[in-house]
Structure formats: structure tokens, C-alpha cells
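for the recovery benchmark. C-alpha cells below, seq after
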């Protein structure tokens, strides 16, 4: 999703206010550090800043989003806006040196240049030291934006050369409302907004048929817990395992199952607002009536333990899910 200043002001009001103020007064820093969790809009904000700096037809600080420069920034083809990303596991010294060589040349189309370093915490020590020299002696008209999810891993000397902006996570309720505005059904929007903080990831997930079917399979699994063990195990192998065949899919499926138990607990506490399976309220109320609270709490703990084993052992996926299903049944 292309970000606009109104959206940034809603999601990150402090960041938007300070950047807009700097643009209006012509006091843009030579280096910024945008830090925050994945999906909080750091890269989108950096590209928005680039458009405000390079737009050919701005309205004050607001870019037009239609001119050649705005479109090329979106497509990553503007010659004076460079984005550096990790090469494999790290950002290497050679990448920073290439950037320095590029930026010693005269700007191609204006007197400004901008570079964005994604996952800046993944710079090698030599790369970070090379960048430090660049930050200490910035070229006129050059703006640097470093993006990081792990602020503490950056060199203090790098941090001290930057103006730091912290990006807060978007509350799931706001992200769900945003997804509904994109045409996503509320039940899927609520779950997707709790599974990821990224609006792009949440939108892609909620529009995926696989995700809608995953929700159905999770509800069916809970229903099967009241059936004989053989029927339950047959369901696990016939429906659950084929649907959640990839590692990330199984992790997501277990999280969806955890949210179902969470909803049951909330219903027993008389809290029906904020249910993630809100369209299944009648079924959930029936299940909550027949399930002791201790069993719900034990079930939540069993799901979390299964997730932990899944990530820390080489246990067979089939065996792990079968054991969990039998544990939840008992």
C-alpha cells in the first residue's frame, strides 16, 4: 500500500508531525533512524519522505503521487533515491562503499540525493564503520534513512548521528478496520490483524482462500474433540495435516486454534466484545457452556507448548498434532 501523509499522521502522529515540520521549515536532517517492529510502516514512511523531497508538482509538503519522480520512487527506479538491503544475511562493506561512490557523483536530476538502508541492524561491523564515516561527513543535500527492527544491535556511534523516530505498532482493531475498508469480511480481518502487524501482509493473508479455509479447519477440529479418538485422529491426518503442510502454515494454524480457546475463555468471563470468531458466537457460547474453565486454560497451555516444541525440536509434525489433539480431547 502506498502511504500518504494523512495515513502516516493517523498511524504515527508524532513521526508525521516532526517530518512535516522539518519539510515546511526546510530543516530536513542529514540522517534519520526509523525504528520499530515489522509492519509499522517504516519503509513506506521513508518513501513518502522521498516523494515529498523529489516531487515535481507538490502541494506544500504533500507530493502529487502522479509525476514521473513519484512514480519512479514507487517502482525503485529514481536515480537519486537508492535503497540498500541485506545481501544474504548481512549488509556488507562493499555495498556501503558502492553507495558512497554513487553519492560522490553529481546528482542526476536535482541537487538532492537520498538513500534508505533496510534492516540496518544487519550491517557487518566494517559496513557500519564505513557508513559512520558517511554520516559524519554528509554530502550537501544528501538524506539518509536507516530502518531497523532491532535498535539495540546498531552501533551507538551510528545512532548518535541520526535523528531517531520510533514507530509504534498499529492496534489490531485499527488494522482490522483498515482491512474492512479494503473489502475484507470482518471475521477474516480480525484474525489477520492479530496474526501480523503489517497492513500489506494482513491484506494478502485475508484475501487468500487458504486462510479462509484454515479458519474453517480450526473450527472443525474443535468440534471433532467430542468424537471418538479414531475419528479425531482420522480428521487430523485427512484434513489438518494436508491443509497446514508448510511450517509457517502449521504455526499459523496453531495460533488460530489458540485464539479460538481465548474466545471461549472470554465468553465464560462474560466478555463478548472483541471476539476474534465473533460470527460464530452461538457455537462458541454452546462450547463454552460445556467446557470447564480449567480445561480451556489447560488447552491454551497445551497449544503454546506444542508451538514451542514445533520450533525447538525435530519432532514429526503428524505426531505433534496428533498428541496435541488427544491432549485437548482429554
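predicted aa per position
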Amino acid at each position: 500500500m502506498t502511504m500518504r501523509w494523512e495515513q502516516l499522521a493517523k498511524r504515527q502522529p508524532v513521526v508525521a508531525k516532526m517530518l512535516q515540520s522539518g519539510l515546511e521549515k526546510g530543516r530536513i536532517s542529514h540522517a534519520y533512524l526509523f525504528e520499530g517492529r515489522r509492519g509499522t510502516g517504516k519503509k513506506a514512511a521513508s518513501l513518502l519522505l522521498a516523494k515529498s523531497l523529489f516531487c515535481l508538482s507538490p502541494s506544500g509538503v504533500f507530493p502529487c503521487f502522479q509525476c514521473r519522480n513519484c512514480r519512479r520512487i514507487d517502482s525503485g527506479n529514481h536515480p537519486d533515491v537508492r535503497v540498500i538491503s541485506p545481501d544474504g544475511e548481512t549488509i556488507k562493506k562493499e555495498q556501503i562503499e558502492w553507495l558512497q561512490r554513487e553519492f560522490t557523483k553529481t546528482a542526476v536530476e536535482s541537487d538532492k540525493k537520498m538513500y534508505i538502508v533496510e534492516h540496518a541492524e544487519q550491517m557487518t561491523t566494517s559496513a557500519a564503520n564505513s557508513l559512520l564515516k558517511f554520516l559524519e561527513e554528509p554530502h550537501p543535500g544528501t538524506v539518509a534513512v536507516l530502518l531497523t527492527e532491532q535498535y539495540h544491535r546498531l552501533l551507538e556511534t551510528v545512532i548518535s548521528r541520526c535523528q531517531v523516530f520510533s514507530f509504534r505498532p498499529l492496534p489490531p482493531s485499527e488494522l482490522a478496520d483498515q482491512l474492512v475498508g479494503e473489502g475484507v469480511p470482518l471475521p477474516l480481518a480480525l484474525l489477520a490483524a492479530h496474526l501480523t502487524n503489517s497492513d500489506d501482509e494482513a491484506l494478502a493473508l485475508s484475501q487468500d482462500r487458504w486462510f479462509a479455509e484454515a479458519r474453517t479447519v480450526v473450527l472443525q477440529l474443535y468440534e471433532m474433540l467430542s468424537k471418538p479418538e479414531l475419528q479425531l485422529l482420522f480428521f487430523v491426518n485427512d484434513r489438518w495435516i494436508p491443509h497446514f503442510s508448510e511450517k509457517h502454515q502449521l504455526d499459523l494454524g496453531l495460533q488460530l486454534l489458540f485464539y479460538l480457546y481465548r474466545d471461549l475463555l472470554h465468553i465464560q468471563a462474560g466478555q463478548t466484545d472483541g471476539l476474534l470468531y465473533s460470527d460464530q458466537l452461538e457455537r462458541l457460547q454452546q462450547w463454552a457452556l460445556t467446557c470447564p474453565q480449567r480445561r480451556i486454560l489447560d488447552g491454551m497451555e497445551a497449544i503454546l507448548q506444542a508451538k514451542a516444541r514445533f520450533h525447538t525440536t525435530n519432532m514429526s509434525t503428524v505426531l505433534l498434532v496428533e498428541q496435541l489433539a488427544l491432549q485437548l480431547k482429554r
